[in-house]
């Protein structure tokens, strides 16, 4: 069986009296695309924030290839090999596309500088179909292209694991097909990905396994087909009245 890359044990996050992530444990294996799904407000983004170090956990342990990353600042976790995209795209507005992607390489898992960072950033831009826009100002890009650049920035750090937080949200139907194809390519490259996503077609076609959250708790995990036909999962999505 493939090696475990990310492991959560009893991960918990409280915001005052609210337990947004409640004693959650799961593993992500090498080359796995894991869907982290659940209704609005169930704690998915907060879980990603705990893994990336954007938020400190209140309790529990998170490890990367067996080494604990609990309590480390986000930049240290990025350095160790966890890259992410954000629900609201965060690019550096004064820099062009190539410079934004290079920044991911400079601050990422494998430190690259100067020409090496630039060469690698160009390779990533070619892979995601943005090489012709390398010198464009990020303010001139279409919405999907800003999302592509953010993904390229995350990839340019050569992460061990990529966290995608609703990367497909807000795309029109044509863009959505392109976006799903792009994540398929990452999957085919054997990348390890945690995908927080509401687009069920994407979950079905991309994810080997899913973890389902509801009100901060993990309520199911397993193969995507099994999980999506689990009555408790269906109830959590539809609400008790509709089940
Ligand atoms: N910084 C914060 N301070 C206080 N409460 C928060 C904070 N971040 C999230 N929450 C609360 O924690 C709960 C879980 O939120 P979270 O964003 O993780 O859910 P989610 O499953 O990602 O939802 P969505 O699918 O709508 O993005 C929600 O009740 C939310 O209001």
UniProtKB/TrEMBL annotation:
Domain of life of the native organism: Bacteria
User: Which GO-annotated molecular functions does the record name?
Assistant: ATP binding
Signal peptide start-end: none
Indicate the segments forming the ABC transporter domain, all copies: 6-240
**Which keywords does this chain's UniProt record carry?**
ATP-binding, Nucleotide-binding, Transport
Q: Which InterPro entries would you find in this protein's record?
A: AAA+_ATPase (IPR003593), ABC_AA/LPS_Transport (IPR051120), ABC_transporter-like_ATP-bd (IPR003439), BCA_ABC_TP_C (IPR032823)
Q: Which Pfam families match?
A: ABC_tran, BCA_ABC_TP_C
The molecule here is called ABC transporter ATP-binding protein
- SMART domains, per the entry: AAA (SM00382)
